[in-house]
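User: I'm new to structure prediction. If I give you an amino acid sequence, what do you actually give back? Let's try with this one:
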Amino acid sequence: MTAVLVGFRAGSEQRARSRVDNGVPWLTVLAFAAVLALADGFWTTSVRGAVGSISRAQGPFARWWHEAAVVLPAYAFAVLGAISLSRRLFTRARSSVMRTAGTAAVIVLAATLTGMIVLIADAAWDYHLQAGQIRMMTSMDGGTCGHRCVTDQLHATLALHVRAVIYVSRWVLLTNTGLVVWMIALLGGRLALARGIGSRRGALAGRCADARIVLAGVLAGSAAVHAAVIGEHLAEWPAAGEFFIGLTGAELAAAALVLVRPRAWTYALTALLAAGPLFVWTYSRFVGLPIGPEPGQKEPVGLPDAAASMLELVTLALAVALFASVHSWRRRPLTPAARGLVLAAVALVTAIGVAATGSTSFDLFVAPNGHSATAHDGGE
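Assistant: Good question. You get back a string of structure tokens that encode the predicted 3D arrangement of the chain. For your 380 residues, that looks like this:
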């Protein structure tokens, strides 16, 4: 009788652990990500206003919240990764204080690393713009500033950005530390590393393979980027705008079919849906489409179309893999944390692609004629 009770208790504990380990505390992840993205975005905007390009210093408040929304998936990725790592490192810790403190430290480090990457990328783009302005101004001064003079100005500008990044990095770390401690205090001094799952969610996870969830997310991301450029394509060439309307609707329909009708023909159609636009995009960038307002002209590569093409490439790979090996995917499901990390990465690519269609803050690709290339999306 005692052995039966011990076995029943062990089985109950194992089931309880499995129910906890299968959950992701999304509310906690999103709350931390939103607060940290806004705080670190403040420092990025401040550095830009102090030493950045004058062309990007206008409207700091609007740029702050807009860019914070764009990088929010990156912070969600960092926080989720930190929580996933903490589950491995501190789950067996005897003290809840040690477990909470260790998790907080990992979150602070992950968020600070993310903030520094964003800050360095923003400073690098400012330096690129300022270097172009220096070269343009020196070319207009009649040659009084020679090569050595230009080099000295570029070196001084670069050194200024490096010092600014180093100086602000400590404040980013201190800000993130204070905010994480404050958030944990609001949560009652406890930080959940997992969330329990009810039976309905468990049944849903059993019916829907993780790969299909990721595939549906990638299709929705592609549709979002394509929907963001419909207006400009309708104005430039109505046929192109109509193409993007149809493509957006087809991708949303494919995302729904992947979830509710997981069949071989669904994956085959999804693969074709991704391969077609990828071919058109590649042909238009390297050869030039024979039709349109500028037939035969190569289109510049922009950030929105690069993001859309990346998502379509992932769509093609997942659709082909699911078509070829559906059962093996179901036997080896992703963990909820891994699935969340993948979806957060997809959300980041989508956010950057959508934001680049309407903001020069992300115009990282420039056409040969000097104009921003993000005016031509394409996704294809």
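You can read the tokens as a compact description of the fold. Here is one thing that stands out. The two ends are 69 Å apart (CA to CA).
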